[in-house]
Amino acid sequence: MKYVVWGLIAVLVVIHQDVWNWNNDKLVLGFLPITLAYHAGISIAASIVWLIAATTAWPDNLEDESSDTLASGSSQEASV
Question: Mind telling me which residue stretches traverse the membrane in this protein (predicted)?
Answer without folding.
Answer: 27-53
